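Q: Got a minute? One more chain.
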Amino acid sequence: MDLKSTNASPVLTDPVPINKPRLGIHSSLLPFSQSGASFSSGLLMTPRKKPGKLDDVRSNGWLDAMISSSPPRKKMLKDFNVEVASNDSDIAYNSWMVKHPSALNSFEQIISRARNKKIVMFLDYDGTLSPIVDDPDRAFMSDEMRSAVRNLAKHIPTAIISGRSRDKVYELVGLTELYYAGSHGMDIMCPVRGAESVDPSSCIKTTDHQPAREFLTMIDEVFRTLVENTKDVKGAKVENHKFCASVHYRNVDEKNWPTIAQCVHDVLDGYPRLRLTHGRKVLEVRPVINWNKGKAVEFLLDSLGLSSSDDVIPVYIGDDKTDEDAFKVLREGYQGYGILVSSVPKETKALFSLKDPSEKAKLRFIVCSTRPTLNFTPQRSFPQIRASSGFSASLDAAIASSFLTQSFFDDFERFPPTAATVSSSLLLGICSLPDTTFRSAVDTALADSHCYGLESSDLRMSCFADKALVNVGGDLAKMVPGRVSTEVDARLAYDTHGIVRKVHALLALYNEIGISPERLLFKIPSTWQGIEASSLLEAEGIQTHMTFVYSFCQAAAAAQAGASVIQIFVGRIRDWARNHSGDPEIEAALKRGDDPGVALVTKAYNYIHKYGYKSKLMAAAVRNKQDIFNLLGVDYIITPLKILQSLKESVTPPDDKYSFTRRLSPQSAATYNFSNEELVKWDQYSFASAMGPAAVELLTAGLDSYANQAKRVEELFGKIWPPPNV
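A: Always. Here it is, folded:
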């Protein structure tokens, strides 16, 4: 499909004002007259300019919108089609508050209506849970705010709906008790409701909802173009939020705003399926679909089984223009409360306001919301978004990483995993224990009629192996809240198109059993050919998991390819270093006094976060608690049961060497320095030249082991086929 066009891209403008608000609440609760508020005749009235048609950035209203979304410090009161400026800011604000009274002052009124009803809380992140700062990567929640939100989530369902990517906002918040919606609601993880069984395993199902998934490649292309086109504009910052791209001009000199606007306009001109929206000193490029934060609120309420309930009151707190869609939904459809955080009067569909944009007022409201009269206990079929591994409260509060238990044969009940991998090794384990939960999945695969009809014995056994991987993977997808990674035959490690064909075949088998691509990763060896395959698959929207990463060039090339997950084996690198020498990368780490495995994870994490790659980093082969604490902040850690048990049982004093200090963070990544040689665009030649002896030996050993396991599975299937029921 040709996505290029010379037609102008649509621009999302302010909604047409309405003179009589349509309120979905009881008239006794209206804080202002239905006929509208009257304002002081002494105020200076200045006509508001309407946005024009897109011809260029000066005549199409873009600059006007940029200026209006970045108001000066003086108070502005905007009423319907005019803007009102006043030297007496109190008069202006008090007039505005007739329509939008203080949420704190009205709290008893809210409680009165909420008694015996179910409260669901929705929160924006930037400007609501965190302050607005010049550098978006430094918009951190305070410890007090995080504690208040955690406590709130203990009492009522709490969701964060942000313009940031879902993974980014989760990284910043670090609370497992919440529901998350990123990219203005276009990337949602939420419970699957309707489970009738009381079995605990049925209560940890989750699903991703990504209505704009088809635009992933397009957004990534636009992001890269915007980065290139704005690189010479001082202060400009471009972010990839997965389903939308943002150009921040907060730190750009105002005289250069037309340049920013023109850059975005020129890029959008070639993408008729994308549109522009304005935020607070940010231009955002989004897909042209009927989806926004309001739709996300509706979807989450439906997922909680509350969309048609008469005894639910949703509350949404936000500060940005993009939150208006949510305010509108609550006001018109759900009889809920929108609360605008703003010290400046502005047109809004929020019912209430918080005048003080500082943390104090927001904290007071959130803390008040945990009062017992507002408590709501979800049904058992409403799971947490990520499974907890049962750590002590102090450790859980300190760690933003997701812990993945190592084996389903360890202890599922005590340490339920958050994600899973299905591999030839797992199939061998299942077949060696006939009474395992997954044996029926293998037997069903061996009875597959399509595989049975293949003439060649080798093709037949390979088909059975693929079917068994998928059947077991499908069962695992029902047991874990996260994604299931499926091993791709290591014998294809040096065949780019062979890997792609194998992934397509596995994906088709998953589709037959109803497992959506959003729940899947495909585990590919990090040879150069494997990384090329990852790039091709990710361009199709298929998520890849790069394994056997033992050097920085592998990690960097995989990140440049857009791999979803990059896995580094910490302990294996350390083991090699103890018994070998001569690897420059490892020697440099040892000279600094660093563990070489931890050093590689740190360097890869900093590279990914400093340069805005979408990849998530996974640490594997951790050997002890110290490894865990040295890796605090990494996205995922595969953790053996014995370490989880040790962490659960230990009580660590603050001055212990196993401290809770987060070692990896976006802010530390921003200050990390890379050499020019490390910042190249990796190709096959530079990749091969940079692979040190440790990476070559460990990669070869891993491939040999995986290939041998795949061969053993096929040989075993040849011995036990056909199963008893065939």
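A: The CA atoms of residues 448 and 464 lie 7 Å apart.
Q: Perfect, thanks.
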